[in-house]
């Protein structure tokens, strides 16, 4: 059993990761500034093996990081809209605070960085871990900067995730699949920008499956970068909308207008597949899960959260 710190442990991905690690018996500490409120972690308070710290990573100190075997660094300003809404916070939280965390770590501590496929650019080409990153947004730029900082130290792993979908204790309706299904149900129409551009998707539980591998296959993953997703889940936005249309009756409106977030790529996941990793949950299962959620749920506003910064 490991002593684990999860920065951003109150977030969309962090709460699922916390839940799974606690159930496996690890000692888990959540470190978060709770910019999306406290509700996502209330279900963890009664776990004897869970500690919850309210901290801002901008003010993190060496003592906050001491004694942990693994540090899963997820805290950050996540996604294109959030970074554009507060560019200064994006730079300071995503880059400068990551630098601070790295500077405080002991050599033997394993750092697992929550990276992204978002910085692979807009060429529409196939990208693997050897492709040169070409970030086209502030989010992509700050995430790539932070990944480089993490990977310059020994004992780090970077997982470059596809865009996640599915339900979490801290729900994110801004993620592409989650957003499209929400609009399909609630607006009965979906306006597409840059409809031919290709993105890559993965269910939240499959993201956690990759994180678990960093504990069980550390020796094979250490000092390395992995794309995390599925070769079967690279779809254009139009293809995704049509897939949702098989489950929900709504109108697809292809605007022919560009998307400000101009990402467009096909991601190759062979490197992590070679370690035995495969995604279990299909896009259709994810869509069904989201339809169930949105039959009763309305989202919390991103702008309410950004007021905290
Ligand atoms: N969700 C995805 O599709 C996806 C894909 C690739 C990479 N990632 C990365 O994974 C990480 C987690 O993403 P998420 O989807 O869970 O986003 P999220 O916004 O739900 O989680 C981020 C968490 O970080 C916390 N946080 C933000 N600023 C902080 C600060 N200054 N101090 C302490 N805590 C702070 C927030 O309160 C939140 O709980 C991010 O770094 C993101 O870039 C996410």
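^ structure tokens above, recovered residues below v
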């Amino acid at each position: 059993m490991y002593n684990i710190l999860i920065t951003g442990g109150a977030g969309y991905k962090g709460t699922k990761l916390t839940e799974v690690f606690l159930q496996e018996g690890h000692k888990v500490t959540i470190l978060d500034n709770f910019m999306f409120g406290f509700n996502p972690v209330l279900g963890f308070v009664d776990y004897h093996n869970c500690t919850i710290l309210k901290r801002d990573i901008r003010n993190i100190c060496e003592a906050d990081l001491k004694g942990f075997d693994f540090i899963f660094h997820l805290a950050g300003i996540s996604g294109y809209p959030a970074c554009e809404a507060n560019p200064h916070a994006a730079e300071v939280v995503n880059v400068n605070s990551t630098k601070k965390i790295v500077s405080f770590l002991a050599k033997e501590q394993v750092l697992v960085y929550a990276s992204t496929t978002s910085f692979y650019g807009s060429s529409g080409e196939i990208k693997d871990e050897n492709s040169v990153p070409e970030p086209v947004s502030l989010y992509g730029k700050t995430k790539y900067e932070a990944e480089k900082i993490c990977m310059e130290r020994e004992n780090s792993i970077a997982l470059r995730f596809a865009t996640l979908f599915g339900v979490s204790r801290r729900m994110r309706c801004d993620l592409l699949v989650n957003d499209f299904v929400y609009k399909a149900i609630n607006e009965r129409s979906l306006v597409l920008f840059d409809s031919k551009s290709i993105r890559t998707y993965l269910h939240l539980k499959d993201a956690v499956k990759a994180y678990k591998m960093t504990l069980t296959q550390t020796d094979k993953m250490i000092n390395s970068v992995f794309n995390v997703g599925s070769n079967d889940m690279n779809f254009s936005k139009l293809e995704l909308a049509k897939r949702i249309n098989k489950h929900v009756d709504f109108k697809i409106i292809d605007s022919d207008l560009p998307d400000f977030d101009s990402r467009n790529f096909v991601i190759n996941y062979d490197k992590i597949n070679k370690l035995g990793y495969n995604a279990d949950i299909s896009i259709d299962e994810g869509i069904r899960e989201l339809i169930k959620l949105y039959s009763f749920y309305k989202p919390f506003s991103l702008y309410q959260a950004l007021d905290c910064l």
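Residues 8, 10-14, 32-36, 56-58, 74-76, 78, 93, 114, 116, 143, 161, 163-164, 170, 172, 175 surround nicotinamide-adenine-dinucleotide (CB under 6 Å).
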